[in-house]
Amino acid sequence: MAKTEKAKKMDTGTLKKVLHYIRQYRWYVLLSLVCAAITVALTLYIPILTGEAIDHIIDKGLVAFGPIKQIILKIVIAVLATAAAQWLMNVCNNRITYNVVHDIREGAFRKIEILPLKYIDSHSYGEIVSRVIADVDQFADGLLMGFTQLFSGVITILGTLLFMLTINGKITLVVVLVTPVSLFVAAFIAKKTYTMFHMQSVTRGEQTALIDEMIGNQKIVQAFGQEDEVLARFDEINERLGKYSLKAIFFSSTTNPATRFVNSLVYTGVGLTGALIAISGGITVGQLSCFLSYANQYTKPFNEISGVITELQNAIACAARIFELIEEEPQVPEAENAVVLDDVDGTVTLRDVAFSYVPEQKLIRDFNLSVKQGQRVAIVGPTGCGKTTVINLLMRFYDVNSGSIQVSGTDIREATRASLRTSFGMVLQETWLKSGTIRENLMMGKPEATETEMIAAAKAAHAHSFIKRMPKGYDTIITEDGGNLSQGQKQLLCIARVMLCLPPMLILDEATSSIDTRTEIKIQQAFARMMEGRTSFIVAHRLSTIKEADIILVMKDGNIIEQGNHETLLAQGGFYANLYNSQFSM
Prior knowledge:
By secondary structure, the chain is of the alpha/beta class. The chain has helices at residues 2-23, 26-55, 65-114, 117-122, 125-167, 169-216, 218-223, 227-253, 255-279, 285-326, 387-394, 417-422, 438-442, 451-460, 464-468, 487-501, 517-531, 566-572, 575-584; strands at residues 57-59, 62-63, 348-355, 364-371, 376-380, 402-407, 410-411, 424-427, 436-437, 477-478, 505-509, 535-539, 551-556, 559-564. The chain has 2 domains: 16-326, ABC transporter transmembrane region fold (Up-down Bundle); 348-584, P-loop containing nucleotide triphosphate hydrolases (Rossmann fold), CATH 3.40.50.300.
């Protein structure tokens, strides 16, 4: 019972959020309602005209053609006006639906841009994509059907009752007494379908996540012969999706036969009652014909509304998942008086820094470091010791739990993120290139760069030669994440991108890991020129690349256990010396 109440609250809360988005398009909603009312009124007026025409057919050879012609003209005008009103109503409904969907999808994407990195790290990319794309599409379908059929359906029911009351109250009473059956059927179906549609939406996201993961890592899957295991996982998820979808479709498919049964009850009741009253002279044959037409008009919306409710249940289930994303806690907002780091001199100070990804698992504790302008700081240590975490903290991808990090004397939490991150040039082991031309990728950090500057940066990174061999040179289009380039070529482009910006501080996290030894020597020479006068943080596993560093921080379990230059640390014969010798021992 508690679960049902919770589901109802979620349902109501989601509906309120949807209405909040619709509110700014209320004039379209109002116009749609007016058009729906006109459509229904004219549709209900036509049976009256038809009944009048029937009453003008008195007997064989006794037909009043004059009045009938006028009635036919009225029917034609009513049909044309109805068509125009329906067209305008559909235009309004489409505007409302796709504007709301546009706003929700934009809100979701904007939220992704400001979500803390821990959210992205803890959720599969495919599942997030499924919410923004598939769930929003499902929501759009349900919302459009709701606007298109719900308004006109409700107005048709009310209008039909009103018209029937003006003709005969007794027959109308028969219709009203059967109505609760339709309401009961609709309520029963709605309760059953929401849970199944919600589970369908969640499982669809899980399936999308698996597909995204496997496509992105297909080479690894095939290299380790994991095809059968992946297929087994996919089959299990697909089977669950099929089960939930089948149940959702089953309950929703009961709508049509159930409501048709109710329709038949209403039509039968109207037909029998109307015939008896007509025999006694209570109504004319034309009015009975009108009533039978209204019986169909009255029951038809219940069929449509039941279908709409089913779709709305699916739409609300999808909307709930979208709003979960939109309402996720964003990254810590910048201070109102946040400082813009304009003239960064490259000094960096870490004081009593403590950080952990999860509270119960301590990582970095009492971390202290003072880096002067232009110094090269190398960070080494075993896997999981916190090397990359230090980089994440410097870039403020994560905030420290306690302590402070200062750049040029300013606590980075008091500076704007944009100015902090533009002060660093980052080349990571994991390359990232966007879909587009090589030129667009190189100029990402400096759009105003000239052609000469761009080519100079590419030459410095030893990327110019292979770029010129591409079909269109710098205008060659590369696919998502540089899929048509080798790993080494992608790494060279990422290095060239930073060399074009030349910010006051550099972060190199295994920047040459995918490059051959010969090219690496040239790149190291280019890095040496680039790092002159710039503060640099170098994360490296190959210790041969950091011999020239001014400070080498040796980390273990989140702490600095040794600190000094290459010669000093070797002379100490400690952890660094053992680590270095192990890489060069035969």
